[in-house]
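Task 17 of the worksheet. Students: predict the tertiary structure of the chain below and write it out as structure tokens. Keep your answer in the requested format; marks are given for formatting as well as content.
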Amino acid sequence: MRDNLREQVIPLLHDGFINWLAYKMAKRDYYEVLEVAKNATEADMKKAYRRLAMKYHPDRNQNNQEAEEKFKEAKEAYEVLSDPQKRAAYDQLGHAGVNPGMGQGGEGYGFGGGSFSDIFGDVFGDIFGAGRSGGGGNRAYRGADLQYNLDITLEEAVNGTEVKIRVPKMEVCGECQGSGAKPGTQPQTCPTCNGVGQVRMQQGFFSIQQTCPRCNGSGTIIATPCAKCSGSGRLQKQKTLSVKVPAGVDSGDRIRLSGEGEAGQRSGPPGDLYVQISVKPHPIFTRDDDNLLCEVPIGMITAALGGELEVPTLSGRVIVKIPAGTQTGKIFRIRNKGIKPVRGGPVGDLLCKVVLETPVNLTGKQKELLKELEKSLHSDGQSHSPQERSWVAGVKKFFEDMKF
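Model answer:
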């Protein structure tokens, strides 16, 4: 008898382990995906995700399947590691700890909130008769959590916005109020398990307890199913929701809408809806925490003589004074023209990086004028290009030291 039982149990555990191992090997380590250490802070992971999202965003990589997959991979990794509960489960059990397919009645991720021992408890409880937590029949299941990916512009992220979204989800059937039975009737107690949801088989000294094959563990059967939901108690519907996006959000931030996930089963509570924010690339600005960055091309005349430059911001235009002798790469900081953090704090700045633009398509006369200017610069005995002179001196010393 014991040998028979062993023959049943060992293949079950073996198959479960193989499935877990195959799933684990099929996915890259989330920390490796984000290119961060395992002790990375939330700020480190957010910065890493923002960099990868900007690099592989579909808007910047049209018809690039590899970039799209890397974008999705980074988003999945950040979604798990930015959530303390999911990160703890992942650190303990790897991908198996956050695999949506392994939950039951699901919270949309992980083991549905249960621990690793709970799962083995269910397995051995079915075989050896150990009672499950929460009893057998008529067990209520919480509805699954849902995720909606929302793409917004940088302007919407900075100023905040309100958007309408349509979410497909399972909702309680209005015809039978979730019972699954035809109106006017009620689910009946399962005659096979007497409402327990499990049946017990005696084999010698062993008592084997298994899920009832007739009611599948629910403890009830529906003799006359609801015509509208076919006895499931739920219907697939499209629901329109209004989402308020607060000012200052960034890629990777999530907005939780409590109770807007899928309806629970057997009068269980509904899950939640998580709106995942992704900020589209901007043609002018890039974001660095609460600061905005932009490159401003200027001509060599303006850089040499100085002048004024009109610079765009998300709230209008500002004039930046360019001092004479400005070099390419110089950064001008415009205070309080960045982003106000979503969790409070001072407004960031706008950082304008000057990029010196070399004239092109010169006429013959313009070329002669530039040659005269170059000749004049070299003949008056003054240093007009300090960086060039120091670089030339450094190269000369390098050759002397290497004895070329």
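Marker's comment: The first strand starts at residue 146 and ends at 152. The chain has three domains: 1-136, 140-187+222-281, 284-364.
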